[in-house]
Design brief:
The chain is an alpha+beta fold and 208 residues long. The strands form 2 sheets. The protein has a 7-stranded mixed beta sheet. The protein has a 3-stranded antiparallel beta sheet with strand order 8-10-9. Helix 1 crosses helix 2 and helix 4 packs across helix 5. One of its GO terms (molecular function) is acyltransferase activity, transferring groups other than amino-acyl groups. It comes from Salinicoccus sediminis. InterPro entries: Acyl_CoA_acyltransferase, GNAT_dom.
């Protein structure tokens, strides 16, 4: 799979792909769309790649460097004090006709490799809607852990997920298998448990 760095010349095509993906979704809440200005900033930061079929963009994935004073900074949810060492795993779009080829995870691995090699960051953070199983599977495959379940973005229930680039935690506490829909347990216990993996419809949690 060949990846291409995206630039300002690709901006309109990125927006068109976002719109096509959004229109294809039955549950629109699983996707937090971005504005043209937000994509332009991501392009300027340099962590955005795409997959093309011929001259057509069929998939894109990106990372975003948040400002330290950004509202609802995910570092606060994870107890990370040095926000300058945090980057976000941002949005992923795959054209509906090109799904099922592993593009999402392969693009994620490539971006994580680039972020790690830069040496500029220690943590990658992201949020996932609890019912979005494909996104949860993707994040767990890449090594992310659920460090908190809370309300974000105006009251939307979200898992806050974290990938430590250089010192990944090894689970040692007692485990608990929790159904992915049991978000009340997650809201009540995420201060003392870490979501480590997904087994069928259950998330495997370990006590911190």
């Amino acid at each position: 799979m060949e990846f291409r760095n995206l630039d300002m010349n690709d901006l309109e095509e990125i927006i068109a792909l976002q719109n096509a993906v959004y229109d294809s979704l039955e549950d629109k809440e699983v996707l937090e769309t971005l504005t043209k200005e937000e994509f332009a900033e991501i392009i300027r930061q340099g962590y955005i790649i795409g997959v093309f079929k011929g001259d057509v963009l069929v998939a894109t994935r990106s990372m975003y460097i948040p400002s330290a004073d950004e509202p609802e900074h995910l570092a606060d949810d994870a107890g990370i004090s040095d926000k300058s060492r945090v980057i976000y795993s941002e949005i992923t779009f795959i054209d509906p006709a090109s799904r099922g080829q592993g593009m999402q995870t392969e693009m994620g691995r490539e971006l994580i490799r680039r972020v790690r090699e830069s040496g500029d960051f220690n943590h990658i953070m992201t949020t996932v809607m609890p019912g979005n199983i494909p996104s949860l599977k993707d994040k767990f495959r890449l090594g992310f852990k659920i460090v908190k379940t809370t309300y974000k973005y105006g009251g939307k229930k979200r898992h806050v997920m974290q990938l430590n680039l250089f010192d990944a935690p090894v689970p040692t506490g007692e485990s608990e298998n929790v159904h992915f829909q049991d978000t009340e347990w997650m809201l009540a216990n995420s201060e003392v448990y870490i979501g480590d993996n997904l087994a069928g419809e259950y998330i495997i949690y370990y006590k911190k």
